[in-house]
């Protein structure tokens, strides 16, 4: 009977460490390590194809031990720069005993959280606080760190059909885009329309001024273009449309095809001076709950390294596109010593 009770409890409750430890308290002959081993997550290949694989400076290993999902910072190359630097660090510090590789999986904020939920990615780089809190509350993610700051750019055509001025606030700009778009004067706004952090941000800005153009068939000026950041910015430039993008994407496109960025005017951008700036774009790193047991130390080590001044923060602060001196992103503030600087994160 006692064995039956224990077997039933294990079957029903082994999903939690607390349950396993409770069983050990009942019977000292049971092994907590043994019970917890039953629920250890085995390493499997991701069902999502990686966009790139990084191996560090001194290795060509194909043994992928860490998978990071993100959109814009992956396209800009920052994810690769972080991966390369961390591999070297992890080997030097003994976090990993053998050479390994890191995969970048392309995904916007919504995709990236989905991938850590399914176990297809280990770490998600995301840009929406409420989505991140939800992932933590659902135990999809087990840790959140402030990784770096990106900055939204409100860009548009040089002919400025919306009549934007340097004195306009962000909400003034969105009001003018709606008003001139509705008037039929040729103003158009390109939306990623893909549940990315950028799409969520512009939707919130439209909603703040009481507008929901995506729900109205009469909003012909609202151009739904569900593509990743670089592709969307290229389209906005070629079509002469206003759009919300970010500094990292803009500078990346400028390094690839300056004619496209030269055709755009930067009407408003986020700044670090005000942590509550509507166009500031904080990037969070979420550690997924389904990291396999063999790779957990490497994933946890990456999260630790990411917030070190001489670790991930240093990589962020020095990251530029080839041939450029403009840094794409800025360091995240220290939320412990300067909590006010993290307001809104």
UniProtKB/TrEMBL annotation:
It holds the Pfam family PBP_like_2. Keywords: Signal. Residues 66-308 form the PBP domain. Coiled coil: none annotated. The keyword Nuclease does not apply. InterPro entries: ABC-Tungstate_binding, PBP_domain. Residues 1-20 form the signal peptide. Gene3D superfamilies: Periplasmic binding protein-like II. This is PBP domain-containing protein. It comes from Leucosporidium creatinivorum. The lineage of its organism: Eukaryota, Fungi, Dikarya, Basidiomycota, Pucciniomycotina.
């Amino acid at each position: 009977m006692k064995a039956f009770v224990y077997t039933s409890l294990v079957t029903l409750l082994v999903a939690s460490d607390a349950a396993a430890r409770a069983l050990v308290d009942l019977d000292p002959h049971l092994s907590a390590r043994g019970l917890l081993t039953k629920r250890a997550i085995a390493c499997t290949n991701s069902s999502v194809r990686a966009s790139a694989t990084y191996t560090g400076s001194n290795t060509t290993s194909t043994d992928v031990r860490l998978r990071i999902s993100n959109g814009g910072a992956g396209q800009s190359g920052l994810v690769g720069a972080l991966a390369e630097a961390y591999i070297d660090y992890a080997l030097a510090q003994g976090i990993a005993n053998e050479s390994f590789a890191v995969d970048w999986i392309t995904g916007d904020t919504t995709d990236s959280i989905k991938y850590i939920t399914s176990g297809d990615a280990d770490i998600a780089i995301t840009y929406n606080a409420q989505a991140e809190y939800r992932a933590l509350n659902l135990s999809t993610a087990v840790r959140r760190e402030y990784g770096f700051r990106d900055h939204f750019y409100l860009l548009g055509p040089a002919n400025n059909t919306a009549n934007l001025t340097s004195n306009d606030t962000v909400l003034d700009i969105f009001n003018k885009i709606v008003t001139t778009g509705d008037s039929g004067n040729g103003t158009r706004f390109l939306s990623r329309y893909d549940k990315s952090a950028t799409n969520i941000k512009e939707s919130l800005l439209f909603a703040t001024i009481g507008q929901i153009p995506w729900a109205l068939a009469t909003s012909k000026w609202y151009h739904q273009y569900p593509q990743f950041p670089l592709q969307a910015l290229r389209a906005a430039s070629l079509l002469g449309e206003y759009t919300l993008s970010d500094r990292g994407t803009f500078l990346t496109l400028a390094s690839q095809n300056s004619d496209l960025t030269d055709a755009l005017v930067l009407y408003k951008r986020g700044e670090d001076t005000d942590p509550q700036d509507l166009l500031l774009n904080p990037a969070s790193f979420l550690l997924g709950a389904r990291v396999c047991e063999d790779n957990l130390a490497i994933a946890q080590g990456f999260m630790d390294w990411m917030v070190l001044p001489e670790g991930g923060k240093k990589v962020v602060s020095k990251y530029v596109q080839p041939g450029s001196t403009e840094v794409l992103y800025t360091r995240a503030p220290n939320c412990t010593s300067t909590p006010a600087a993290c307001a809104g994160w």
